[in-house]
Amino acid sequence: MSQNSNKVKQTHQQFIKRVCDTGIVWALKNKDGLATSSSTKYIDKNGEDLGLICFWSDKNLATACAIDDWDDYKPSEILLSEFIEHWCLGMSNDGFIVGCNFDENMFGEEVDPLDLILDLNKELHHQKKEIKLKKFDHINTLVDEINKLG
Question: Containing domain of residue 141, as a range?
Answer without folding.
Answer: 3-149
